[in-house]
Design brief:
Length: 456
């Protein structure tokens, strides 16, 4: 089976790597791919537009993807990032008769509209914190003033990870509302906002495959969003991840699977928007139980880089089954191992960053080490150079998180580029199973913002 993969990050490199292991895979194409993906797939130079690009640009892009898939006789198109899902690439492929892995536009709204996601959760009793939607600045400010505690201000639309502003006072919340709603800091995505109560607890990422009816859960994963060790510094797209989440109690994990993931997939089917693809609820595990912070309509990044190395089954078979509604016939197995990913970032990231730096040491990693490219390119001499804020996702698997962490950092030490920085505490600290009295395993002495424990 020939496959076209859409996207260019470490998530897509991990997907390409796993698809390559399938005995059913014929040719693999990637649009646009990166230097790492190019070692596994033939790349097609089609850059993915942002969801807020002009409609003519989006239409031209969708037409080009359909043409590229047809020319290459692709029998499946796998859509990695959220932007093409939100502007309906899967719908366009379906109209053209080309099977696709990923939700159609109506179901992808669970990520592309925070307000829609909240309405679905409210209608179907999916646990979440108190929240309200506003498109009027004065009304939003009045709501903030009425809340007893701090709030999180979220842009309604897609904002490339920059759309959730965690505030520590009502003044900060009003500033955030002004930036988004009056000054248009995130363009159209932030003119409508959702204001949520700021929750305390511990974050976890749940992922599941679905064909619209059946649900196959993946192991839980945790990412580290802050730029620097100890959870300090600005938020990033993710500086590393580990899986599983041993601190998550079994009964809480079960509540997430039943009351969040399965209930939401059933809700979308009941509302006429069956969900096919990967559903990824981001959750806060509070003392009162799990609460959804957001839904994502795709694999997480860097969560994918820890999850797919733990998948023992054939990813291509699973993706085909999600697209054609036969997931209940696939036996999906996961390794009992643990995985750790350390993200190597460019100097300056997550602010303005340097690029074009030559990357050394890629050939020196252990034979079983995994290096997924996030932002790389080839220069005129064929050398691998940096081309993004997040550059490489260095992953290792082992029987325990501590062992996987040690292996991953051993390989990190062999890779170099000018300005490279990374966190040294990925998968470190308290990842032990929690005590029965602490639903989320939350360490009551930990500061919000400290390692692994954040308030939204
Ligand atoms: N790691 C969070 C995300 O992919 O949205």
């Amino acid at each position: 089976m020939d496959v076209l993969l859409i996207g260019s990050g470490a998530r897509e490199h991990a997907i390409a790597w796993k698809l390559r292991q399938s005995p059913r895979l014929g040719a693999l194409y990637a649009a646009p791919g990166n230097a790492g993906i190019a070692q596994l797939a033939e790349t097609v130079p089609l850059a993915v537009p942002k969801a807020d690009a002009p409609q003519e640009r989006i239409d031209a892009y969708c037409d080009a993807v359909v043409a590229a898939a047809r020319e290459r006789s692709a029998e499946l198109v796998v859509v990695g990032p959220e932007d093409p899902l939100s502007f309906g690439l899967v719908d366009r492929l379906q109209i053209a008769g080309i099977p696709a892995f990923g939700p159609a536009q109506a179901a992808a709204r669970i990520e592309s509209s925070k307000a829609f996601a909240k309405e679905v959760m409210r209608r179907h009793g999916v646990p979440m914190g108190a929240a309200a939607r506003f498109d009027d600045f004065e009304a939003a400010c009045a709501y903030v003033a009425s809340r007893a505690g701090d709030v999180v201000v979220k842009a309604d639309g897609l904002a490339a990870g920059k759309g959730a502003i965690v505030t520590s006072s009502h003044e900060e919340a009003v500033d955030a509302l002004r930036d988004l709603m009056l000054e248009g800091a995130l363009g159209a995505a932030g003119r409508t906002v959702v204001i949520e109560d700021r929750l305390a607890g511990r974050e976890v990422s749940a992922h599941a495959f679905s064909d619209g009816r059946s649900v196959v859960h993946m192991p839980f994963a945790c990412d580290h969003k802050a730029a620097y060790d100890g959870g300090r510094g600005p938020n990033t797209g993710g500086m590393g991840a580990y899986s599983p989440a041993p601190w998550l109690r079994d009964d809480v994990a079960e509540a997430v699977r039943r009351e969040v993931t399965e209930r939401t997939i059933a809700a979308l089917a009941a509302e006429g928007a069956p969900y096919r693809g990967v559903l990824f609820p981001g959750l806060m595990i509070t003392d009162e139980g799990p609460r959804v912070l957001e839904f994502n309509a795709r694999f997480g990044d860097p969560e994918t880089e820890v999850l797919l190395p733990l998948l023992d089954s054939d990813l291509l078979e699973i993706m085909v089954a999600c697209a054609d509604g036969t997931l209940d016939r696939v036996d999906v197995r996961w390794s009992d191992d643990a995985a750790v990913t350390v993200m190597l970032a460019s100097g300056g990231y997550p602010g303005p960053y340097e690029s074009g730096k030559v990357i050394d040491g890629l050939d020196d990693v252990d034979a079983d080490g995994l290096v997924f490219h996030a932002g790389t390119n080839l220069d005129a001499s064929g050398r691998t150079i940096t081309s993004g804020g997040r550059v490489l996702a260095v992953t290792a698997t082992a029987p325990t998180i501590a062992q996987a962490r040690e292996k991953a950092y051993r390989n990190v030490d062999r890779i170099r580029f000018d300005g490279m920085h990374y966190r040294r505490d990925i998968g470190a600290g308290d990842v032990a199973p929690s005590s029965p009295s602490a639903p989320g395993g939350r360490d009551p002495t930990a500061r919000p913002g400290g390692w692994g424990v954040r308030a939204t």
